[in-house]
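Mods, move this if it's the wrong board.
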Amino acid sequence: MATVRTKVIVNPVAGARSTRRKWPIISRLLERIGLTFDFDYTEGVGHAMELARIAASDGYRYLVAVGGDGTVNEVANGILHSTNASTTTLGVVSTGTGSDFARSAGLARDYTTACANLTSSKRLTIDVGLVEYQRDGKRQERFFVNSAGVGFDAAVVKETERLPKFFGGTIPYVAGMLRALVSYKNKDIVLKVGDEEESRRVLNVAVANGNYCGGGMRIAPEAKLDDRLLDVVIIGDMGKLELLKEFPTVYKGTHINHPKVSMRKVTNVSIESAEPMLVYADGEMLGECPASFRVVPATLSLVV
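Not the wrong board. Structure tokens:
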């Protein structure tokens, strides 16, 4: 791995702006393990995607994302939109507040161990999801590596993005959840899986490639990154008090036993709603429904 042309993409504001402070240490750790690399700082939303696309197209065969889940998502999207997607490998040094993709992939969440593992010869070829959604009246699409969805979780993501990020783990999600809970109302949706269509009222629909979201919630306990399927977890018409009561069970993954929760493994699913309904992917707000999700199997090479 040390001889492979490597680009490290660093999001300095990830992890409550702590990554800028950590980067000199991380840089020395990378040099110590013998990784020869160039690096770029990101300068705003979407910049990591463009940096990754250019780097992969220009011959960098190994791209390392240093940041949170949003940074990993952007670097993965850049690779997948490049001219060399099939021959470019992704590495991750997780320095964000949630680190949900690292949890799902079984990667180290402390940056010292993560750096040491970057020269590993082990590879996992993972599936990715592709979500199509609406933004400003136009259809757009985005790859996601870990989880996406619509409904309450998307409203929580929106509220979380508005909060100052002083803490890691699940604290930002819980704070965002409490803010979203005040005004959120369950939505009537039309859910289509293959030729099957059903109308129902839901709190949330999660479409998962990996297990975790929200800084450690095991939203899809049976999901696997390489099984060529997406796990759709539907939380039905659950009230606010009931949600608060059941909330702790999400960390164990036992929420799927609740009678108002259902789960299915699919290759594609679409969701429509007559009411405005937000869409998110990998912890980032994207747009609104209608939305469709499909798996793109065995697409991205990950160093593990």
